[in-house]
Amino acid sequence: MMKHFILLYLSVALVLSAAVSCKKDVKSGGTAGLTIVNAIPDCPRMLAHLSWGQPKRWAEVLFVDFDQYDPADHLSLPAGEQPLQFYRYPDTTVSDKPVHKMTIPLVAGDISTLFLMGTFAQPETMLVTKTPPYYSSKDSLVGLRLANLSPGTAPVRVKITGQGVNMESTSLTYKGITDYISVPATSKVADLLVEFYDQTSGTLLAAYKLDGVGSLITNNRWRYRNYTLALIKGPGAKHPGAAQFVTLINDY
Q: Which terminus of the chain, N or C, has less C-beta within 10 A?
């Protein structure tokens, strides 16, 4: 099965262990969680190789698609220095060079997101380490994290609105990201609308609607969970002709 986004998660026990730990050592045992997000519009499909050297077969790589997410991919990596190489599909021959290669320190108990942005010619990365907040069954909340991953975009203002909800985040510059914002997801809220505006001109750049946030159905996809909403450069397969749009990343 082709993997669109690589979501590397920890068990609850590891997360709790990290919460009470006073010291972090990238050489210690245990596992770490990592989400890799492809926000490079001219690399619609990238291949992630989790070691040095040239990949020799498909089983050695993971597919990371632009503006795509597959929640079925739940993996974990050993703590320590993790090499990563990214290739633009289908460039995987011996003569091909990776679009980008790097080493990231994975600390046992941490949950991180690696954002890939920029262009094929000038790729950029941003590693963010943050454990999503936990919401109990008594909390009618959804956690939303906002990011500006659109190169050349001036600072943006983001509005989150719904029935009885009016929240705002300002001065979100390129490669800027907020903490998780706890947003009401009660039955009174109904839907939520997240809008990204140019902070200076007030022009609406892109928006994303969270339908049924306040629904009372058992399998409400929003309540008690966490998501990242990122403004990225278009166009995309699902957003033809769009200069910019908002993509949704499941953080849980």
A: N
Separation of alpha carbons 237 and 239, rounded Å: 6
109: left (phi over 0), alpha (psi -120 to 50) or beta: left
Say what the pTM is: 0.84
Tokens of 25: 């050592």
Residue span(s) of the chain under CATH 2.60.40.2890 come to: 141-250
**CB-side neighbour CA atoms (13 Å) of 185:** 27
| Angstrom distance (rounded) from CA 137 to CA 4 | 30
How many angstroms separate the CA atoms of 5 and 225, rounded?
18
Rounded to whole angstroms, the Cα distance separating 145 from 182 reads 9
Q: Residue 141: name the closest of 133, 130, 151 by CA.
A: 133
**pLDDT, tens digit (0-9, with 9 covering 90-100), for 10-50:** 333 333 334 334 334 445 579 999 999 999 999 998 888 88
Which residues contact residue 44 at a Cβ distance below 8 angstroms, ignoring those fewer than 6 apart? Answer: 65, 66, 89, 236, 237
User: What are residue 15's phi and psi, to 5 degrees?
Assistant: -65, -45
Residue 19 is given by DSSP the state H
Q: What are 117-141's pLDDT values in tens digits?
A: 999 999 999 999 999 999 998 889 9
